[in-house]
Fold this sequence. Notes:
Elements: H1 3-17, H2 22-30, H3 34-45, H4 49-64, E1 71-77, H5 83-96, E2 101-106, H6 125-129, E3 133-136, H7 144-160, E4 165-171, H8 176-181, E5 186-191, H9 204-209, E6 212-215, H10 222-238, E7 250-253, H11 262-278, H12 281-307, H13 310-325, H14 330-341
Parallel strand pairs: 1-4, 1-5, 2-3, 2-4, 5-6, 6-7
Helix pairs in contact: 2-3, 2-4, 3-4, 3-7, 4-7, 13-14
This protein binds guanosine-5'-triphosphate (GTP) and magnesium ion.
Amino acid sequence: MNSDHKKSWLKKRRSRRNDVSAAQLLTEIQAGSRDALSRSITLLESTKVADQVLAQEVLKDCLEIKNDQTIRIGITGVPGVGKSSFIEIFGLWLIEQGKQVAILAIDPSSASNSGSILGDKTRMNELSMREEAFIRPSPAGTSLGGVARKTRESIILCEAAGFDVVLVETVGVGQSEGMVHSMVDFFLLLMLSGAGDELQGIKRGIMELADLLVVNKADGDNLTKAKVAARTYKNALHLFPGKENRWVAETAISSSVEKPKMDEIWAVIERFENHTKENGHFLRHRNQQNLHWFKEELTHQLLQLAGQNVDAKKHRKELENQVEKGTVSPFEAADCWIKKWILKNGI
Ligand SMILES: Nc1nc2c(ncn2[C@@H]2O[C@H](COP(=O)(O)OP(=O)(O)OP(=O)(O)O)[C@@H](O)[C@H]2O)c(=O)[nH]1
Ligand SMILES: [Mg+2]
């Protein structure tokens, strides 16, 4: 292929890929097209440069649509605690109240396999069929950090699409909860009663993140135990240091199979929203989160930039080996690498 030929072929290919413009996608997203929303999230997840450019354009447009009536809720808990079943019931209840609900999943296991949350769509049978709902599993084979970045951006797209409630689900395995906490307004932790070890491997730090702690599967023989556990947790939560937003975490019991009382759960969330909007923390918290993500993004983009240079990558590997052996301090190694590869390039 001669060079002119190649140029025109590339141009054609590019125009095919971008056969839709950011403005078009935005119009469709705002008109409620789930297809356009899905497509834009897929663009966000793509590693192709052209897709990324288009995705960032859509994202920028979406950011300009102020939709501050939304609430972002993180739902987490150990595997099998009943997250998906809870979201199915909660989501349907919210739809009954006239709301539109988006569910985004952060699945730590998808970093290594094809993504187990996909199977969860079956646990959200009815919800996944409702047009007022949108369920999106995390992309498979992406690092947890990558998944979190995409999820954060997907939240913005969902809000521009007019969703009132965005639920971010994650399996609690100790590393993903903090990440979810840094992108939501309200953090709901599902727990089980009578599992013996009261904290069920959930570290105190994670309990401290919770705004509402729900003892789940409070049904049948489990009901009394669940009530006792909820009281125990309530007492434990009071011993935690006060939060910046002056919200004292609440406890509740819930069952997804026996008379679910989602109105009580929603009442807590509304109380929280009113409380933090009145004291100004709601917005301050979102702004702080943006600051946090800016810093994360800076690190990520710098490393990505540096990774494009083979020699810089090789040098980094050498320094990593030295740090591991203890022949150079982590600070010294970072300083040396930054001076050589970043400052040298005129930053
Ligand atoms: N008795 C009872 N069982 C429940 C309840 N909620 C969920 N289950 C059962 O608990 C099991 C796990 O439920 P899921 O909703 O898949 O739990 P999960 O937390 O999403 O699980 P992972 O996605 O694997 O982390 C299933 O067999 C459900 O039928 C509940 O409220 N009461
Ligand atoms: Mg699940």
